[in-house]
Amino acid sequence: MTGSDSTSGSVGRTVARKEDWRLVTGRGNYVSDLELPRMRHVAFLRSPYGHARIQNVDASAADAAPWVDAVFTGLTPAIAAVELRALSALPSYIETAQPILARDKARFAGEPVAAVVAADRYRAEDALELIDVDYDPLPATVTAWEKPEVPVHDGAPDNVLLERAFEAGDVDEAFATSAVVVERELITNRHAGNPMECRAGVALWAKGENKLTLWSGTQVPHLVRNMLAELLGLPESNVRVIAPDVGGGFGTKAVLYPEDVALCIMARELRGVPLKWVEDRAEHLQAAAHARDHRYLMKVGFSAQGKITAVQADVTCNIGAYSVYPWTAGIEPLMAGGLLTGPYMVDNYRCVTRGVTTNTAYAGPYRGVARPATVFAMETMLNLGAAELGLSDLDIRRLNLIPEDAIPYRMPSRLVDDSGWYGRALEGCVEAIDYDGFLVEQKRRAEHGEEPIGIGFACYNELTGLGRAAAAGPRMPFRTGHDACTVKVEADGSVTVMSGVTSQGQGLETTMAQVVADAVGVTYDAVNVRIGDTNEALWGFGAFSSRQAVIGGGAAHTSGVALREQILELAAAVYEVSASELRLVDGRFLMPGVEQPLGTLADVARIAYMESNRLPEGFEPGLQVTRFYDPVRGAFSAGAQAAVIEIDTVSGELTILKWVCVEDAGRVINPQIVDGQIAGSIAQGIGGAMYEHLVYDESGNLSTGTLLDYLMPTSAEIPELSIGHLSKPADNPLGVRGVGEGGTLGPNAVLAGALHNALGVELTRLPITPARLWEALR
Amino acid sequence: MKAASFDYVRPESVAGAVRCLVDAEGDGKIIAGGQSLAPVLAMRLARPRILVDVNRIPGLGALRRDGDSLRIGAMVRHHDLLEQRHSPLLAEAARWIGHAAIRSRGTTGGSIAHADPSAELPVVAAALDATIHAVGPDGGRSIPAVDLFEGALETSLDENEMIVEIEMPIPTAWGFAELSRRHGDFGLVTVVAAEVEGSWRVCIGGLAAVPFRARECEWVLDCGPAGEDRIRQAARAAAAAIETSSDLHATADYRRAMAEEFTRRAIEQAVAATRAGAH
Ligand SMILES: Cc1cc2nc3c(=O)[nH]c(=O)nc-3n(C[C@H](O)[C@H](O)[C@H](O)COP(=O)(O)OP(=O)(O)OC[C@H]3O[C@@H](n4cnc5c(N)ncnc54)[C@H](O)[C@@H]3O)c2cc1C
Predict the structure, then answer these.
(1) Considering only CB atoms, which chain A residues are within 8 Å of B3?
(2) ipTM
(3) Which of A222, A365, A467, B35 is most buried when burial is the number of CB atoms within 10 A of its CB?
(4) Final residue in a domain of this structure, among B113, B147, B167
(5) Tens digits of per-residue pLDDT, A222-237?
(6) From the list B185, B248, B253, which residue is nearest A704 (CB)?
(7) How are beta strands A180-187 and A83-84 bridged, if at all?
(8) Which domain holds residue B48?
(9) Global confidence as pTM
(10) Residues B210, B133: one domain?
């Protein structure tokens, strides 16, 4: 760690979160709460068909209704002039266009076809009923591994938008000499992000100027500003994006959606009138980004001792109707191919991974991106290999995990792993779950004919905080390795942070304040953090890829340290002492051997801003620093989870008796926030493994269109979690590793593994439901 | 997901409510707890012209014991059922309905009138041969539960009729077993087994369009002492007689198998309670 001689010590403590007073007392300020003078409300008409040619849209009745302000369709020139094209430099990538409102054809059920502006949402929805769309239904494709009758996009006759191969070592030779080769087809289920607050936006185009303000529940305000400016032909400084309090995101809100763009275009047509759209839950399930509808054709070879000899995989990811903007159809397939082998030593690797378009909602970033699926695939294969070789699930992992002395380890996909604490994470779980006690109890139950229990494990490496050289992504025309942070001392000596990070509930105001307090040398309470407004922070890519602690935190730390130097230089000149000896601790200037502080930061700040007559020779007014930070490489977080489950073999119900997780967050900035991230992501993973499942029928209608059928886990479904920490400092200024997503990676594999362990049943298709388990047991 | 526009009235008496329904000429709808109706309105699956709010009608929230029966006012909330001590079976059934927020608004009359095939209270009502007291423009009538439920979300209530009270015997022994996907969900299978006046009643919810009274099962149980074999035989008889189909959450085979298993569990619970009571 660089230059941390300040001792106030905010980092590493569970401090009261800055945002909690307003959030837990119901005084948060969400986009959904925003009320502006003359505001109007927007509702979207959505395609009821999975695939249909649009012959005609007759909006005349809606247009004529006296309570309607405006109606827009795909043919409205202002709408038709813009389309979204996610770009990638990958050679096989077929670029496709996503309209703002569907024009010639609708490609998934829920795609916006028209939009209405009215005085309130009720009236806007009334008007939707007056719009007459003439659809000519086409055969729909909902399964990515089936041939399309009619392709989704003309440019991709087989629906494949992108395909990439990974090849390392000699796979065929390795299989030929393997003692055991296991082959399986594994299918994972489709999820929606389902944040508590669905998508929301308010767009206002200034009346007398070409200026756009968008309040949006986005995770990526600067990126949104950049994209909107380009799409709408505005200078970037004329676009302001504000993300106030945001009620969850999980990746779903890291996308620029056609609805967002439509809102801004409509606002331009209705200058001076703020337009509000708040997505409802039915829209969210239909039309916000989905994820994880994948198939893995796996083949894994093992030596007689149980060492993995080769991994071969054919991966198909259902990317839905469009190449998600701006992340592209590559987001899931490339992550899947890049991270499939996980924390295991694999020399011989062959993987073909593809993104296939279908008549379903498009796939986008969702907490864990592909890895909950790849971990499930890899761990399942390990369990099967172990069973064939007569090894325990535990021992086969111990044999194959990347050992500490192999670090840095180059994965067969060429990503470089800097962690290596996988064994420690696994052994931590073994201890926390009392593995020996479990074995005794499992045997006892078997002998007494009691309900069987089983144990399941998952080991994973989460690639976090990706710098410019670590991209596992689809070669988009931008790199997300850096963020900026501005830290300044105000005239009263308080410290203001204007950071490019964003928060959807993760407490970034708090963690940034902790980092800056220590870096500058002030108390946590003296620091105020402003985030989520592109007019304040210089630059930040926002929340995704578990990047903010590493990158945003790195920028905050670097800026804070530089500011402290600036402060000390000025203070040393003011107090006529040596800058190298002067220290700033809790906002007070200390000299070695002098008991009383020389003064406070407030004293010096006053001089810097208010009393230029007292400024020493050569000093400019003000105290402020802006720095960028880019870790260049990423930081891998080691993680392992294990659970013991009990099975009711008659009903197929399973009960989770114990769940443990050990993760490496590197240096922990705030223990409570880190635990919260891990607990929340495990809960989301359990939901994904056992309950959440988006189902389309053959014609492309979503069968799980409300929360009555799309089952979110509640607190009653989530067991007590025991969370343990490792802290291997990462190679970045704070030594931190990302923890936002790791928890989601384990549960699929843990639960499937525990069932296999208990009963020898294989559930190769997710989710794991009582009905499916019951059938597997017949 | 916003309701189509409607008018709203809040009568102060049952007669007033019925008058409002008559005035609406078939286009009126009672709203009680709103826990089933509000989502239906929001999705515009129902678009009544007038909503008749019965929450302010005095007297409908009373619950009292009348000999071996319980008289439950239509506006008695699920939460009140859970708290009362007269009928432990009803308290147990209410515990399985949704979550606290839903139980504190949802009403007994609303649940019976809504007639969701997976809801708990209709199964209890059908099992116990409850009597539903309704009032219409021509006065009151009493409807046996089995005649009330006609199909999924369909009852024999006239559009101008309102449920005012539900009368249920208090069973001497009972068992309640439910299989649901999550805590608080509607049941995939809900079984009530009860002994009333010395004879068995077994009713299964969640499989057929209406709560299914398993008469063969009851007959098997009534034929002799409820030993393990007889219970198994009874549960098998129940499952064999029931019509069901597959849906998103379970196949027909699974549901039928679970109907058998949960019928067995409910009967065993009831029998265990009787045995415990006998000691
Ligand atoms: C998230 C959620 C989970 C739920 N889970 C369950 C569950 O697990 N099990 C379960 O059983 N229920 C469940 N429910 C439904 C809940 O129990 C409802 O309260 C109940 O089904 C209807 O009662 P209500 O008073 O809310 O009726 P309302 O919603 O007000 O009305 C429902 C219908 O009944 C009619 N009606 C109401 N009162 C009368 C009356 N006195 N006479 C004639 N007609 C009348 C209305 O016109 C309407 O058609 C759930 C609801 C929600 C929102």
Answers:
(1) 122
(2) 0.95
(3) A365
(4) B167
(5) 999 999 999 999 999 9
(6) B248
(7) unpaired
(8) 7-53
(9) 0.97
(10) no
